[in-house]
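hiii so um. not sure if this is the right channel but i have a protein structure encoded as C-alpha cells and i wanna go backwards to a sequence. like what aa goes where. can anyone help
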C-alpha cells in the first residue's frame, strides 16, 4: 500500500540544476578552477560537502570546505531571490493528488536545508511536505541510501510502502540501495544521467498521478 512519495528537489520539483551549475562555476572560478557543465554533471545528486571535499582533494583548492559551503549557500539564495520560480509542470498537481489520497509527500534532497525550505516556501507548497531531509544531515550522501532511510524513519513507514522520484544517477542508486522502488525523471537540464536502476523512467512529470504510482507497488 502506497503511504508516501519521496521527492528529490533539484531537477524534480524545480528545474534548478542550471542555477546550481551557474553558482558552482562562479564559486569554483573564485577558487581558481574553471569547470564546465560536463565536469559538474558527475556531482548531480551529491551533497555539497561531499562534492567540495572531492574537488578540494583533486585540485588543491585553498578555501576550506566550510568557506565553500558558506559561499555556495549565499550565492544560491541570492540566485533564488532573483528568479521567478515555478514548479516543474505536473508537480503541484501530483502533490495535491497524493495529499487528497492521504499519501504523504516528502523531500530528500542533497541541497542545504535552508535552500530546500526557501524553495518550497516560495512555491507555497511547504504545508504539504511531511518530512524534509537534506543530504547535509546524513553521514553519507547519495548514492548511499542514508537520506532515504532517514526520510522513511521520519515518516514512520517501511521502504516498500513508498516511492522515490529522482532525476540523477546517484539518487536512483541511493533509492535502490534503500530498497525503495524509484521513478526516474529524465530531465535534460540534469545532464546525462544513468537512470537504468529506476523501476520506470518518465520524461514528463505530468504523466504521474496517484494511480500511476500505486501500480508500481503492485
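sure thing!! here u go:
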Amino acid at each position: 500500500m502506497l503511504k508516501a512519495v519521496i521527492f528529490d528537489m533539484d531537477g524534480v520539483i524545480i528545474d534548478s540544476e542550471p542555477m546550481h551549475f551557474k553558482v558552482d562555476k562562479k564559486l569554483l572560478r573564485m577558487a581558481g578552477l574553471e569547470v564546465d557543465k560536463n565536469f559538474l554533471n558527475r556531482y548531480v545528486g551529491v551533497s555539497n560537502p561531499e562534492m567540495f571535499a572531492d574537488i578540494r582533494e583533486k585540485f588543491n583548492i585553498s578555501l576550506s570546505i566550510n568557506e565553500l559551503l558558506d559561499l555556495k549557500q549565499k550565492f544560491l539564495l541570492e540566485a533564488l531571490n532573483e528568479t521567478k520560480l515555478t514548479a516543474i509542470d505536473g508537480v503541484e498537481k501530483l502533490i495535491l493528488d497524493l495529499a487528497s489520497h492521504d499519501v504523504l509527500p516528502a523531500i530528500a534532497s542533497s541541497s542545504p536545508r535552508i535552500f530546500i525550505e526557501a524553495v518550497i516556501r516560495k512555491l507555497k507548497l511547504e504545508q504539504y511536505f511531511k518530512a524534509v531531509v537534506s543530504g547535509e544531515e546524513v553521514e553519507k550522501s547519495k548514492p548511499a541510501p542514508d537520506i532515504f532511510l532517514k526520510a522513511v524513519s521520519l515518516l514512520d513507514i517501511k521502504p516498500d510502502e513508498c516511492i522515490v522520484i529522482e532525476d540523477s544517477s546517484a539518487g536512483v542508486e541511493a533509492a535502490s540501495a534503500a530498497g525503495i522502488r524509484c521513478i526516474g525523471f529524465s530531465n535534460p537540464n540534469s545532464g546525462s544521467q544513468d537512470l537504468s536502476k529506476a523501476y520506470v523512467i518518465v520524461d514528463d512529470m505530468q504523466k504521474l498521478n496517484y494511480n500511476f504510482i500505486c501500480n508500481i507497488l503492485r
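oh and The chain has two domains: 4-14+88-216, 17-81.
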